[in-house]
Amino acid sequence: EESAQVLYDFSAEPGNNELTVKEGETVTITNQSIGGGWIEAQNSRGEVGLVPEDYIEVPSFPGAGTTAPTPSFGNVAPPDLSIFDAYAPPAAPAQNQASNGNDPWSVWNADPSGGTNNNWASNPEGTQTGKSAADPWGSISQGHPQAYQGPGAEDDEWDDEWDDMKSTGGYAESESGESGAMQRGGAHASSMKISLNKFPGFSKSGPELYLLCKQLPKGKEKLPIYLGEVGPVWSYPESQLDCVVADPKKGSKMYGLKSYIEYQITPNTTNRPVNHRYKHFDWLYERLLDKFGSAIPIPSLPDKQVTGRFEEEFIKMRMERLQGWMTRMCRHPVVSGSEVFQIFLTYKDEKDWKTGKRKAEKDETVGVMIFSTIEPEAPDLDPVEVEQKCEQFSKFTKAMDDGVKEILTVGQEHWKRCTGPLPKEYQRIGKAFQNLSSVFTSSGYQGESTLTDAMTAAGKTYEEIAQMVAEQPKKDLHFLMETNNEYKGLLGCFPDTIGVHKAAIDKVKEADKLVATSKITPQDKGTMAKRVSTMSYTLQAEMNHFHSNRIYDYNRVMQLYLEEQVKFYETIAEKLRQAHSQFTTM
Amino acid sequence: EESAQVLYDFSAEPGNNELTVKEGETVTITNQSIGGGWIEAQNSRGEVGLVPEDYIEVPSFPGAGTTAPTPSFGNVAPPDLSIFDAYAPPAAPAQNQASNGNDPWSVWNADPSGGTNNNWASNPEGTQTGKSAADPWGSISQGHPQAYQGPGAEDDEWDDEWDDMKSTGGYAESESGESGAMQRGGAHASSMKISLNKFPGFSKSGPELYLLCKQLPKGKEKLPIYLGEVGPVWSYPESQLDCVVADPKKGSKMYGLKSYIEYQITPNTTNRPVNHRYKHFDWLYERLLDKFGSAIPIPSLPDKQVTGRFEEEFIKMRMERLQGWMTRMCRHPVVSGSEVFQIFLTYKDEKDWKTGKRKAEKDETVGVMIFSTIEPEAPDLDPVEVEQKCEQFSKFTKAMDDGVKEILTVGQEHWKRCTGPLPKEYQRIGKAFQNLSSVFTSSGYQGESTLTDAMTAAGKTYEEIAQMVAEQPKKDLHFLMETNNEYKGLLGCFPDTIGVHKAAIDKVKEADKLVATSKITPQDKGTMAKRVSTMSYTLQAEMNHFHSNRIYDYNRVMQLYLEEQVKFYETIAEKLRQAHSQFTTM
Q: Is residue A29 part of a domain?
């Protein structure tokens, strides 16, 4: 047992054996070998509970501060990024140019086979940045950053699924959270969750690496882009991948101290279910973001976007949203065709999964280098057209983001009214009719029942309507909100994707000056122009994919919404017609 | 020109040439011969305008303080009311016994043929009491009491119809106005508007006059009560009288300084329209209250119960309520059969009307003496049964009053929501859909219109729904509110009616003691019991009339309400079905 200083405030999740601590507080470590990123501590009032390890300054904690990856370069020569004054951090060239091999891509991924860390959790700051930026809800929800996973932590540890339950109400937060707007304001580089931020000092995710790469890596990956009716389009598979997320099962770890939920995912290709926990989805998300994030908006997982105050409701909601997320990924021809996505859906056994994981984590075609795999089957685009397209998409996604948020705000308000004051009012109307009816019953007047029976029935009808009104949002508004919520998340990724694109356009604009000052050769300039054209084809293909999905999704959700609304009003009308028929005036 | 002291606060009606004055303020009389109960005054700021005469202490005002009627007794000997210690005011016997002729009923009505005053306006205090008690809204509305009508005032002067426009919202006030409850609390005598309060010192409207009257007046009026299926019932005419109030026309008086509205009333008996101004309705109300108020609840005129901020809306509303009031009076077999009511509906010319008016004002069968015309064709009732019935009716009317007020409160709230936040919300939903649709239109993506046309239409549909929601209360809730409002007014009269009845029961209970102390003879006691039985038959007939009308009215209004509600929800469902059909997911 030893004393330790608390570094950050931590709020315990009730019923989770946790201990609330305050920054600066001194606690006594009662058990340091809990594992899973937690230690057991006792506060001055004698209360004992779990606290995340990285919230406490434990002098002798093994593995802390030893997680910085050793950069190792692969077989491609790194470009001299210092030529872009605007982007080169003043005091960081040493790292940029540090060569520890001949593969520059290996720096993006610390070798996971070493088992020293799970790369997305090794840097709490990076994780936090990712949360508050990629996920507009992240900055609002009370969840603490994922606890550090020490060197001894097993691959399939507990995850903090339950901590997410702290967040309340998925839509309300959407308005107060301005991280999305901030992101759009130009800070996209730092918010990008691609692996660049893991390499100390290399904080920019600019497209220079791809634009000026002397020799593009020759992998077997090829992502063709065709010219379709609507313009550049991805190559779509003949049959669309789909999967069903279902059957959540509770499991527990650490002698029941921590529990988790395992979901069953069944793809339509194999029809064979695989099991995954939320943390595996998160792993997949990180891989997809690393690999495709520069070209394809990869929406955040529904981690913090949970509603529901009860465990079952929470699980149902998370599953529904994981299903939505998976469906969207399945629908994307590039994502769904990727090796990492296939492994996630079709691994045969634990060993197969672990091998697949390791392989995916070693993937070097990540970040802006994804553009190197893209092969547009079309003539190079004029830089002016590239810029125009980019501007158009930028404006459109911004405008749609506003429109979607407006619907969410209005929908949220309507939801509140439909579940709050409105049914209460109908209930009161119903009660008032019934009360008057029972007064009438007391009149002692003959033939009174011809009125009172009908009035009581009318009163009950309004009480039924009250209940219908209160339950209706779950039947229609829910899907309208979920779809718009999903689009809000998706649209929140565009600023990053478009940001990379704009940065590339800016670089090409600088090309003449760079040639003039002999910083690059005229040939380099030609390469840059060609590559930015490839990037534009990618963006256009992605926008066309987005538009096509959007038109389908909004047609679908509006149909669903209106269908349920029609049913709702028809049912009310029918109920009232019944009530009406009971009154008589002879 | 002379200075005068302002006695009460008076708020000028904008656009009506009036002057706002404060109690205690000194003004200069600039024109005392305006007439119509008004004088022109100038305040210290030099502003000139009309002020009601009785709001200002004008020393030499002719006719002020000279309106006390000279009591004159008719051909029936007045009972010695001093025997009821509880009721006899200690220092008032002189007036009670003052005999100025042999007709005691003439004291209730100052001789109108003398033209000194219109009797309901001659006593501002009495008028005010009547307003705040009989009309629960009266105490809330800002209207000032009707101005004193001086000796020179013509019969058909302007009335202060426009002043009523100050009151806003008919239903909201119903809750804050507790005058109805106070009335029920036992202060019924002072609030009764029957002419008793015009005879100074005789402030109680107890039933003694009738119970102990030595010799009942023998008029030609006979009001039989039969034993019907439901118990004692009035004698109903074969065809029911009805009338239509329509065609309001604006006229003006005093060189355009004051304007009034004349309504056309057409009874179904003659089918010949007669014209009446609001003040004539008020005159009729006063006559009916004087004559039948002790036995039959005569609801207040809709004077202060006006809604509508615009002149047209106000006139429409007042007309609608006058129609409701007239319909209710027409439906009452006793009221509709009375001479005064018939004169009002069928007078042939101005002279006929004036003659009829004078005759009605001379009517001596008023107050509790109405019971002397009632002839129950049934055996006398046991006093115990009389009391039980009375208790039952008292409880019922009180309970119904509560029930009706609950509906008014709830309806008022619902009205507010339906015309306020709810349509705004639907409008915002509609706008949000349309906004998103117009963003989509800007995508430049092919085939976008398959979505955007439908979304725009859906958005417009919700805007239409918003308008429907806002307009719906006028179509359904309005009648539900009006009916309940009418019943609230009617129920507010019952405490007085029942109060007279209870007082009579109490008197009969005292009979034995009075006989023992030789204050009355055993024969008197028998007469009292018989007369209280007659009163009970009257109350029962009236309650049965009330119940029968109530059952019809509530069946009718509920039918109407639900019918419109069904239409409303069906129309919305149909509109949404249309909107739904425009979306496609192929």
A: yes
User: Would residue A161 count as lying in a domain?
Assistant: yes
Q: Do residue B308 and residue B443 come from a single domain? A: no
- Across the interface, of A425, A550, A583, the residue whose CB is closest to B417 is A425
Strand spans (E) along A236-364? 243-253, 258-267, 274-277
- pLDDT, residue A346, reads 95
Number of Cβ within 10 Å of residue B115's Cβ equals: 12
* Contact at CB, A454 and B399, closer than 8 angstroms: no
Confirm if B532 and B511 have CB atoms less than 8 A apart.
no
pLDDT at A117 over 90: no
What is the separation of C-alpha A342 from the centre of its chain, rounded to a whole number of angstroms? Answer: 19
Q: What is the CATH number of the domain that holds B17?
A: 2.30.30.40
ipTM associated with this complex: 0.71
Query: Which residues of chain A neighbour B466 with C-beta distances below 8 Å?
Result: none
Report how far apart, in Å, the C-alpha atoms of B317 and of each of B135, B273, B560 are.
17, 20, 19
Interchain CB distance below 8 Å, A413 and B435: no
Choose from B409, B445, B575 for mutation: most chain A CBs within 10 A: B445
Q: Which two tokens stand for residue B326?
A: 């007239």
Q: Is A318 annotated as a binding residue?
A: yes
Which residues in chain B are contacts of A583 at CB distance < 8 A?
A: 555, 558-559, 562
Q: Do B346 and B400 reside in the same domain of the chain?
A: no
Phi, psi of B226 (to 5 degrees): -105, 165
Across the interface, of A392, A425, A443, the residue whose CB is closest to B414 is A425
What are the strands of the beta sheet with B38-42, ordered from one edge? B48-52, B38-42, B26-35, B2-6, B56-57
Task: Give the nearest chain A residue to B551 (CA atoms).
Answer: A451
Same domain, B285 and B242: yes
**R_g of chain A computed on alpha carbons:** 28
Identify whether A445 is part of a domain.
no
Q: Is residue B517 part of a domain?
A: yes
Residue at which a domain ends, from B362, B377, B403: B362
A279 belongs to an annotated ligand binding site: yes
| Mean pLDDT of the region B263-270 | 95
Kindly state the average pLDDT of the residues A124-152. 31
- Poorest-pLDDT segment among A167-171, B188-192, B297-301: B188-192
Q: pLDDT per residue over A228-264, tens digit each?
A: 999 999 999 999 999 999 999 887 776 777 778 899 9
Shortest CA gap A227–chain B (Å): 14
Residue B374 and residue B537 in contact, taking contact as beta carbons nearer than 8 Å: yes
Contact assessment for residue A248 and residue A319, using Cβ atoms and an 8 Å cutoff:
yes
Nearest to A585 among B410, B559, B572 (CB): B559
What single letter denotes the amino acid at residue A31?
A: N
Mutate which of B391, B394, B440, B443 to disrupt the A interface (most A C-beta within 10 Å)? B443
Which of B175, B488, B569 to mutate against chain A (most A CBs within 10 Å)? B569
When divided into structural domains, chain A yields a total of: 4
For residue B17, give both structure tokens: 């040439």
Q: What pLDDT, on the 0 to 100 scale, is given for residue B361?
A: 94
Are residues A270 and A407 located together in one domain of the fold?
Answer: no
Q: Which residues of A touch B565 (CB under 8 A)?
A: 576
Please judge whether B392 and A422 are an interchain contact, meaning their C-beta atoms are less than 8 angstroms apart: no
Quote the mean pLDDT of chain A.
76
Instruction: Say whether both A18 and A93 belong to one domain.
Output: no
Is residue B541 domain-shared with residue B393, that is, in the same domain? Answer: yes
Task: Please give the pLDDT value at position A484.
Answer: 96
8 Å CB contact of B436 and A404: yes
Which residues are within 8 A (CB) of A450 and not within 5 positions of it... i.e. 6 or more apart?
A584, B551, B555
CB contact under 8 A, B576 and A554: no
Instruction: Tell whether residue A272 is among the known ligand binding residues.
Output: no
Residue of chain A with shortest Cα separation from B454: A555
pLDDT digits (tens, 9 = 90+) for B195-239: 333 333 232 457 888 888 877 777 778 999 999 999 999 999 999
What CATH number should be reported for the domain holding residue B336?
3.30.1520.10
